[in-house]
Amino acid sequence: VMTNRERFDALEESVRSLGNGQHVVNENMAKLELMIHDLAGQLERVNHHTRRSRTLRSTLAGMGRSTSSRDDDDKRSRGTRAMRTTRHHGDRRMHGHRHHREEHVRAKPKITMPTFEGVDPDAWLSGAVQFFKINEVHKSERVQIVAYYLDGEANTWWQWVSHVYKNKGEQIRWRDFEKELIARFGSSEYYDYDEALTKIRQTGSLRDYQKEFERIASRVRDWPEKALVGAF
């Protein structure tokens, strides 16, 4: 059985142990508070760095969008300028082509086809040939066109000639038309222009001879230039 003294000593030891334990607890609490404070500081620093990183990323992203936008604007601007330049050159080319065509049309002389009544067939045929050349009439269409410009005696003759060729089942070519016309309304002396050109002689002035030579030479076909010069 414990005596009172022993009980008192045991109680005192217990109180002392409790005091020591409380002291340890207090020390531990103080250490814990320091750790918490340190962690709070570290967390604040982490948050601060995070905010700075976000701000920096946002700034960089804005700069990237701005640069991209400027690049896009530059590309669009260059593309627009290129399109304008292309349209400008294209318009100039088109205008140039139109202007060239208009000048060509304006430069094209207007030649009317004269009617023929049986007088001076050489002059009329020469005018008809010029009309065909200016209007680019093909040889296969020439006879059909000139038939509309025959009047009076020439028209009566044409009705007869076309009837004869039709009965023979032959088509009147332009060369046939020329020969038939000259045979009917021209000078019989020069019906065969090829033969006439070989027989022509100078009997008067050189000017008259040249005029007659040119008249006959304009009616012959398939004579090379060298042969024409020799005949002159």
Topology:
Elements: H1 4-107, H2 121-134, H3 139-146, H4 152-168, H5 174-185, H6 193-199, H7 206-217, H8 225-231
Largest β-sheet summary: none
Tell me the strand percentage band.
Answer: under 5%
**Average pLDDT for all residues:** 74
Order of helices and strands: HHHHHHHH
Helical percentage: over 70%
What Rg is obtained from the alpha carbons, in whole angstroms? 59 Å
Number of domains: 2
Uncertain runs: none
Tell me the structural class: mainly alpha
- Helical segment count: 8
What does the overall shape look like? Answer: rod-shaped
First-last Cα distance: 177 Å
Number of extended strands: 0
Question: Mind explaining what this structure looks like?
Answer:
The structure is a single chain. This protein starts with a helix and ends with a helix. It contains 8 helices and no strands. The mean pLDDT is 74. It has 2 domains: 108 residues; 111 residues, no CATH class. With 232 residues, the protein is mainly alpha-helical.
Features:
78% helix, rod-shaped, Retrotransposon gag domain-containing protein, 2 domains, Retrotrans_gag_dom, mainly alpha, single chain
Summary of the model, kept short:
With about 230 residues, the protein is an all-alpha fold.
